[in-house]
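fold-stage: in
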Amino acid sequence: MARTVAELPKGSRITDYISLGVLSERIPRAAVDEALRVSGRQSVRQRDLPAHVVVYYVIALALYMQSSYREVLRCLLEGLRWLGDPSARPRVAGKSGISQARTRLGAEPLQALHDAVVRPVGQPSEPGCGYREWHVVSVDGSTLDVADEVPNAAAFGRPGASRGASAFPQIRFVSLVENGTRVLFASRMAGCNVSESRLVEEVIPSLKAGMLCLADRNFFSYGRWNQARTTGADLLWRIKKNLRLPPETPLADGSYVSRIYPSDKDRRHRRRAVRVRVIDYQLSGVDKAEPLYRLLTTVLEADRAPAPELATLYHERWEIETALDELKTHLRGPRIVLRSKTPELVRQEFWGLMLAHFAIRSLMHDAARQSGDDPDQLSYLHAVRVVRRNIITHRAFSPPRSGPPPSVRP
């Protein structure tokens, strides 16, 4: 599908439309340099587009999905010159030059940067972030359409459709979300032929002690439950009603303790059992509610987390649906396809999109904390517009902070 070259409005100050100075507070230059170092992608000679500028440029692409490559770069470079950055003297490259610069950079530095800086920003004591002693997070996944190119289709596949195949190849990703701030973190991506239940196994290791993770019924298996449990986090997952969970110990709140097994053979021999707590409940007077909902939790004591409270808390899992909608509709734009034409640049663009979403959500968290508001009550779309239009009052790329940079795994 041809993309119409879109420009920003004429006669506007460039600083009304580019605000990477604000974003660099959440994605500092020191972290960018460290990500480039561990991935071996530093600029070895002075180029028209140095590697660190290309990193910020990829993030800017996520903010301006409907603008052309050159227009976004023009905004970025003019903003840098307006700020008086003596190192920002590159000219606006053509489309091929931009593509070459992005190809030299690749996806690895963006993923390393994402893994280093994108993390929960709230505290359990803040509105929506905690439940009793726990920091509440959820896990879920979604898909994104990518450019209809042969290499993309070969790398990522196409989802099935009622008649043949989908019009666009797709990538699939799974993320954790911090419920109170809607920060998406620990994300992993693959082709659409990789299931969410498979991809979540790469996300689970990011759970930590003190977290309470909510998940839908499609993620449950004995293996994944044990994998998540061994991180030290507590779990509250919905499960399918047909799972055999005979009551062993009834509890005062109506829940009961049971055991799960990896197979029927293990069940018969009563080996490799894991104790769980089961919560069955109904939603009375709710249109289209299912006859029965069943939750499984690692919290075996009813007094630590009463069943009615956990049943109510589980429905906070929908916070991740809202976060995914922000990413796909308000930031990316409805019906917008990721523009990159090769698999490596698709991966790069995806990580830039996730970094942009984090930067905006982190800024919203700070604004809410200063005003005493719940971040849920702030408009994400308005925040995106503010970031796009914010006038820069400080350097776009701040110098490295004192002390060691954030650690980045090679």
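fold-stage: in (second)
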Amino acid sequence: MHQHETLLTVPFHDADMMGVTWHGHYIRYMEIARCELLERIGYTYLDMYDSGYAWPVVDLKIRYSKGCTFGDRLRILITVDEVEFRFKLSYRIENADTGELLTKASTTQVAVDTKTGEMSYPSPKILVDRIEAFAAGPSAA
């Protein structure tokens, strides 16, 4: 299990007039965490494109347990669940101060060859190699 943690604070502009965060913003928070993970493994969206692949999200599942409000500190734990044939990630969004679960979600992305528009099975070696190096720890990088 390969995990990455992102911390962020709910900004004022994400809350409604009651201070509650709109449900769609959780997906943006997940994207922020995913981008941090990709940067950490050295395979950002620009790197993906440069390597000849786009990685669209083809599936998103989300379950809201409790809302968050303006000023709440969030911990987003992202776990790499699968990389061999698709890039499947799970997310756990918690209140960073209390540890209370707010949202659980998952996304699935697939590699699409940017020249042909066709999905690539299995996942391109570059992603698999980067995830394996990430899993091995800093000494392997």
